[in-house]
Amino acid sequence: MIKTIILRSISLLLVAPAVLFLMSLTLGLTGVSDRILTSMAEQALQDVKKALAAQIHDPSALEAAIELQKLEIYSSYGLDKPWFYRMFQMIIRIACFDLGRTRVIKGFTGSQEISEIILERIPNTIVLVTVPLIFSAITGILIGVKIASNPGTFLDRFTTYLSIISYTLPSWWIGIILIIFFGFYLKILPIGGMYSIPPPPDISSRILDLIWHSILPFTTLVIVQIGGWIYSARMIVFNIAQEDYVSVARAKGLPEDIIRKRYILRIAAPTIVTNIVLGLAGSLGGAIITEIVFGWYGMGSLYYQAIISLEEGLIIALTYLYTLIYIFVRIILEIVYLVLDPRVRY
After folding, report:
1. 300 CB contacts (<8 Å, ≥6 apart)?
2. What angle do CA 322, 323, 325 make, to 5 degrees?
3. Is residue 70 within 8 Å of 45, Cβ to Cβ?
4. pLDDT digits (tens, 9 = 90+) for 266-279
5. Domain range for 43
6. Confidence at 179, pLDDT banded by 50, 70, 90
7. How many domains does the chain have?
8. Does residue 104 lie in a domain region?
9. 0.85 exceeded by pTM
């Protein structure tokens, strides 16, 4: 089993260099790599200009020194050669998230380093998107399994209708309705943002303030996600419950709890776990619409801001980050499959 996991992991890890090559090729052909490196070179040149201006007071000498430094900086970034000569260098930069600084977008501390901006947003996305997804998945699976054991009952039909409605509701509409009702009419919950203005000074108060501000977006995501989990869990369990070996177990007089745990859930586990793990991976990408509606500074709103502001370096870094998340999640799934179902072989 260990050999199988290693081989599958290696094959999945090969996706990363393939994506890096394709991204570098696309960036070179479209001229985006030139714009990214030129922006990085200009930022470095600005720092050099400030240092030279403090040392050289003759305007003509200063201009000559700046021009010389400009040639050296552009050469160090490979801008004096065609893009395909520096393709390997671009691959290394993307792999290390060394894509310079943003032009417009800034981090919470004022930093414009792309890597720092991304690291600041990940915890916010985990709080807003990942936690509601875990809650929705656990609750939805428990409800789905329960109603699938009694198909055709009023509870089964009623819950199924509600889950379908929940799944089809747009998150932005639910968010706006909750904001209007709880924020404007009742005035008991904040309508947006992550903290009050000004934010509380001590840590415990800030945590409570963050929880208070996350109630509406948390509720929005739970409402639109839980229906899908209920319906998918119900259908998976219901289909397995119709198999012949389950009917034989019932004919033998086995208790329903044993049938559900040993004969149904064990078979359904790989599919359910796949949905949960892939959902968690997708949650790290953020919820663009929900984050924008509630003014939440997560990965989704960051991606949206990067596209609107044409921050090519930030878009590339986020895209590559999502690729790494996908590879990591697939490796976890390969291990989980082999643990849950030893019959699985490749």
Report:
1. 125, 129, 285, 286, 287, 288, 289, 290, 291, 292
2. 60
3. yes
4. 888 888 888 888 88
5. 2-95
6. very high
7. 2
8. no
9. no
